[in-house]
Amino acid sequence: MADLRSDVIDVLNDLIENSRDGEYGFRTLAERVEGTRLKQLFTDRSVQCAQAAQELSQWVRAQGGTPADGGTASGALHRGWVKVKGAMGADSEVSMLEEAERGEDAALARYRKALKEDLPADVRALVERQAQGAQQNHDQIKLLRDEARAHS
């Protein structure tokens, strides 16, 4: 049982890093966009990702584990790319929505990977609920990106 618990903690720590990437990434996007609608959307998504990380961290602690405390290297690179694009003047609404969608694609892939693991029922329910939220975020951002493309 200890191995299963350790494996589950590893899966959840991966998702904590994923959530931190989302938190930091959406915060970066909120700082780069001009429009108040997208600024608010990205700020709200950042808060939701922070809440998801906190929820996962609580479960890890309850199992005697140590929650991951940061994001991933690929997430940091993605945020750096957003800043570079902005510095080069490529921080249009479409561009920022494309970057947000790219980040959500990565998040969904990590949730799908986690759901392939043997997880206790309560953990599976938590991960499934968060995965559904990530899918909804992705779909909304994709819709907004498509609308922005149509108007540019």
From TrEMBL:
SUPFAM superfamilies: Ferritin-like
Region named Disordered: 130-152
Basic and acidic residues composition-biased segments: 139-152
Stretches assigned to the DUF2383 domain: 7-117
Record NCBIfam families: PA2169 family four-helix-bundle protein
Protein name, as recorded: PA2169 family four-helix-bundle protein
